[in-house]
Amino acid sequence: MWVMVLFDLPVMNRAERRAYTQFRDFLLDTGFEMAQFSVYLRHTSGKEAVDALIRKIEAAMPTEGKVDILQFTDKQYENIVCLRGRKRNAAQKNPSQLVMF
Q1: Residue 61 region by backbone torsions, left for phi larger than 0, else alpha for psi between -120 and 50, else beta
Q2: Quick one: which residues bind Mg(2+) (predicted)?
């Protein structure tokens, strides 16, 4: 299973910027990789791991802002179409277990 976290957090003052940075650092420390600005992606071992991860994200979320969490299967991940400029990148490949750990 894959988990994608998309977020839009306010950064109008120093406290909000600090909360944004702490949330972003939490995602990186939890094993997420940045796919795009404010879009982070992580592979998990299954539904139970996804549920545990969602609870951790909820606990780390700042008091303001919007966070969306998508979950999808390995097969769905392989079907993602990636465009870079006007070029289409090759299909996504699932990481091998050795790469993840």
Answers
A1: beta
A2: 8
Q: Which residues are annotated as a binding site for Mg(2+)?
A: 8
The span from the first CA to the last CA of the chain, in angstroms, equals 16
Residues at the binding site are 8
| pLDDT tens column, 58-101 | 999 999 999 999 999 999 988 888 888 877 766 666 666 544 44
Is the distance from CB of 65 to CB of 9 less than 8 angstroms? yes
* Residues 12-40 pLDDT 10s: 999 999 999 999 999 999 999 999 999 99
User: How many residues make up the chain in this entry?
Assistant: 101
Report the distance separating Cα 66 and Cα 64, nearest Å: 7
Answer whether 16's CB lies under 8 Å from 64's CB.
Answer: yes
What is the pLDDT, as a whole number, of residue 43?
94
